[in-house]
C-alpha cells in the first residue's frame, strides 16, 4: 500500500500503551483518546494523563462530547494533545471561546453526526459546513446515535456527494475492511479515515492483526 497516496489513518478509542506503541511503529497518523466518561473507551479509566503525556506523537487527538472549556483546556495541557475532536453539539460561540483559551497550534476537528438521509439532515450538514469552516481545521463525519460515537454503523456516504466540503475531512462510522473500498464512490475523498469498533476485540482493545491487514490492503480507487 502506497501510504502517500492513501487517506491518512486515525485509530480511535485507544486505552492500552503496548497497542499505542505498536500503532506508532506502524506509522499510524492519528491516535484517538476518548475523554467522554460514558464511553466504554473512556481513556482515563485505563491510562493517566501523565501516561498519555509521555506518548510522543504529532497526531494525539482528544475526543470530547459537550465538555466544559476548562476541563478540555486542562486535559489538552496535561496530556499534551495536538488535536481536539469536538464530537457533541458544541456551538460556534463555544468554539470561539475555546480557541481563545487554547494554544494556537492545537488543531480542531468538528464532528458532524449523520443520522437519517432526509432534508433536515441535509440542512444541518449545510449549516455546519458553512458556519464552522472558518473556525476549525477539519470536519469529521460520523454516524449519529445515542452514544454519540463508536456506533459501529455506517451512515449513507452518498449524502456527502451532495456537498462542497470546504475543509479536508475525516470519514468515520462503522468503517471496516468490507466497506472501506466504497470510498471510491465519494467525489471528494477523505483526508483521513477513522477506524474504531470494527477493528477491536472489545471496546478499547484493538485488533492489531486486523489493523495490520488494513495497512497492507490498498483501498481501490481512493486516490
Ligand atoms: O468510540 C466511542 O466510544 C465514542 C463515544 C462517544 C463519542 C465518540 C466516540 N468515538 C469517536 C470516534 O472518533 C470513533 O472512531 C467514531 O465514532 C467511529 O466509531 P465506529 O463507528 O465504531 O467505527
Task: Describe the structure concisely.
The chain is of the alpha/beta class. It has 6 helices and 10 strands.
What does this structure look like?
The chain is of the alpha/beta class and 223 residues long. It has one domain: TIM Barrel (Alpha-Beta Barrel). 26% of the residues lie in helices and 20% in strands. The chain contains 6 helices and 10 strands. The protein has an 8-stranded parallel barrel with strand order 1-2-3-4-5-6-7-8. A two-stranded antiparallel sheet has the order 9-10. It is globular. The N and C termini lie close together (12 Å). 35% of the residues are buried. The mean pLDDT is 94. The structure holds ligand LARABZUK. Residues 12-13, 32, 34, 36, 39-41, 63, 65, 87, 142-143, 147-152, 172-175, 194-198 line the site of ligand LARABZUK.
What is the element layout, followed by pairings?
Elements: E1 8-12, H1 17-25, E2 30-34, H2 49-53, E3 60-64, H3 69-79, E4 83-86, H4 92-101, E5 107-114, H5 119-132, E6 138-143, E7 169-171, E8 192-195, E9 200-202, E10 205-206, H6 208-216
Parallel strand pairs: 1-2, 1-8, 2-3, 3-4, 4-5, 5-6, 6-7, 7-8
Antiparallel strand pairs: 9-10
The ligand O=C(O)c1ccccc1NCC(=O)[C@H](O)[C@H](O)COP(=O)(O)O binds at residues 12-13, 32, 34, 36, 39-41, 63, 65, 87, 142-143, 147-152, 172-175, 194-198.
Amino acid at each position: 500500500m502506497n501510504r502517500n497516496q492513501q487517506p491518512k489513518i486515525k485509530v480511535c478509542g485507544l486505552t492500552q500503551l503496548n497497542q499505542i506503541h505498536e500503532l506508532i511503529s506502524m506509522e499510524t497518523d492519528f491516535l484517538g483518546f476518548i475523554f467522554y466518561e460514558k464511553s466504554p473507551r473512556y481513556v482515563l479509566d485505563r491510562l493517566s494523563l501523565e501516561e498519555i503525556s509521555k506518548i510522543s506523537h504529532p497526531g494525539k487527538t482528544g475526543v470530547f462530547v459537550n465538555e466544559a472549556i476548562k476541563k478540555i483546556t486542562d486535559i489538552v495541557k496535561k496530556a499534551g494533545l495536538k488535536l481536539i475532536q469536538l464530537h457533541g453539539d458544541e456551538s460556534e460561540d463555544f468554539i470561539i471561546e475555546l480557541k481563545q483559551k487554547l494554544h494556537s497550534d492545537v488543531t480542531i476537528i468538528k464532528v458532524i453526526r449523520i443520522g437519517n438521509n432526509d432534508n433536515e439532515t441535509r440542512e444541518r450538514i449545510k449549516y455546519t459546513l458553512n458556519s464552522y469552516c472558518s473556525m476549525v481545521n477539519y470536519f469529521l463525519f460520523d454516524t449519529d446515535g445515542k452514544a454519540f460515537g463508536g456506533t459501529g454503523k455506517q451512515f449513507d456516504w452518498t449524502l456527502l456527494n451532495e456537498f462542497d466540503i470546504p475543509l479536508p475531512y475525516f470519514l468515520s462510522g462503522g468503517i471496516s475492511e468490507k466497506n472501506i473500498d466504497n470510498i471510491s464512490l465519494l467525489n471528494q475523498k477523505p483526508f483521513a479515515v477513522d477506524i474504531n469498533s470494527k477493528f477491536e476485540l472489545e471496546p478499547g482493545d484493538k485488533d492489531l492483526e486486523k489493523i495490520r491487514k488494513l495497512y497492507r490492503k490498498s483501498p481501490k480507487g481512493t486516490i
